[in-house]
From TrEMBL:
Domain 4Fe-4S ferredoxin-type: 156-188
Name assigned to this protein: succinate dehydrogenase
Listed NCBIfam families: dhsB, PRK08640.1
Keyword line: 2Fe-2S, 3Fe-4S, 4Fe-4S, Iron, Iron-sulfur, Metal-binding, Oxidoreductase, Tricarboxylic acid cycle
Native source species: Neorhodopirellula lusitana
Entry-linked Gene3D superfamilies: 3.10.20.30, Alpha-helical ferredoxin
This enzyme's EC code(s): 1.3.5.1
Pfam families reported for this sequence: Fer2_3, Fer4_8
């Protein structure tokens, strides 16, 4: 049965919102209940704005505003990603009327579990971007003077590349991936900022790179200029935390809000890394 959005007659007067809060990195999380007045056509960001404006919980106790991240407010930047009623998604495109149709009682908001919490619903996605650095997910610029028109990309290749280019580094795929486990390093006493950053990068580089990065490696390996770094990308995917770590559970593809064919990218990366290994063996 398809859940119905609240009609004018059965709209609730108030909405209960349960938020998993955390006052800072490494602190103990706790649940906090809020009650806000229902308004039609709200999204989860507007719910959080109402909570901030009220500045008190359901017991009437004054509380600090819940922290969250957002940017574009139109499901493009990926920064507002959180777990809403148990499902990872963007809070700007999570419409309250639809959420209430599925869970009439309350809306439950939690931060993503695979990244360190900065505060409340705001997480540190640094590892996600480190994954993109590991696979050199960019087109190298080899000069700043006019090189003339670039190579033409056939339509079939454009159609293959376009869906992959929509990745917004939101983190939904890694949140759902059983092979991507949280890494939370803390700075040691007497460790400089540079030493701490280097240790974090080393830890990230040992662990699974993630489906988003595998898919971006396939996107840039299929670009006329991007493919000049193809061997480096395949080398990165062949090492520790690379393609072999993927258990093919396919959770990632099921949650990607941009419907990126991640398992197709993973299969392509598997074939490409095998060919890369054979080529390296013959080149010895
Ligand atoms: S592949 Fe999809 S789920 Fe993963 S980061 Fe990109 S847009 Fe988000
Ligand atoms: S297919 Fe691989 S990357 Fe995707 S969820 Fe499964 S283990 Fe993770
Ligand atoms: S604010 Fe950019 S995706 Fe939600």
């Amino acid at each position: 049965m398809i859940a119905q959005e609240p009609s004018a007659k059965n709209r609730p007067e108030f909405i209960n919102v349960r938020v998993r809060r955390q006052d800072g990195p490494g602190q103990k999380p706790y649940w906090e209940l809020h009650k806000i007045k229902y308004e039609p056509e709200m999204n989860v960001i507007s719910v959080l704005q109402r909570i901030a404006a009220q500045a008190k919980n359901t017991d009437g106790r004054a509380v600090s505003p819940v922290a969250w991240d957002c940017g574009c407010l139109e499901e493009v930047c990926g920064s507002c990603t959180m777990v809403i009623n148990g499902r990872v998604r963007q809070s700007c495109s999570a419409l309250v009327d639809r959420l209430l149709a599925d869970h009439a009682d309350e809306i439950v908001l939690e931060p993503m579990s695979k990244f360190p919490v900065v505060r409340d619903l705001m997480v540190d996605r640094e590892r996600l971007f480190r994954g993109l650095e590991r696979v050199k997910a960019w087109v190298p610029v080899d000069s700043y003077y006019n090189l003339g028109p670039g190579e033409r990309i056939p339509r079939e290749e454009q159609e293959r590349n376009y869906p992959l280019s929509q990745c917004m580094s939101c983190g939904c795929c890694v949140e759902a991936c059983p092979q991507y486990n949280k890494i939370e390093d803390t700075q040691k006493p007497n460790e400089s900022e540079a030493e701490f950053e280097a240790r974090k990068d080393a830890d990230f580089d040992e662990a699974f790179v993630g489906p988003h990065a595998i898919s971006q490696a396939m996107l840039f390996n299929n670009h006329p200029t991007g493919k000049t770094l193809a061997a480096d990308r395949l080398e990165a995917l062949s090492g520790a935390g690379g393609i072999a770590t993927c258990g093919n559970a396919q959770n990632c593809v099921a949650v990607c809000p941009k419907e990126i064919p991640l398992t197709t990218s993973i299969a392509r990366a598997g074939r490409a890394t095998t060919l890369h290994a054979i080529k390296k063996w013959f080149d010895k």
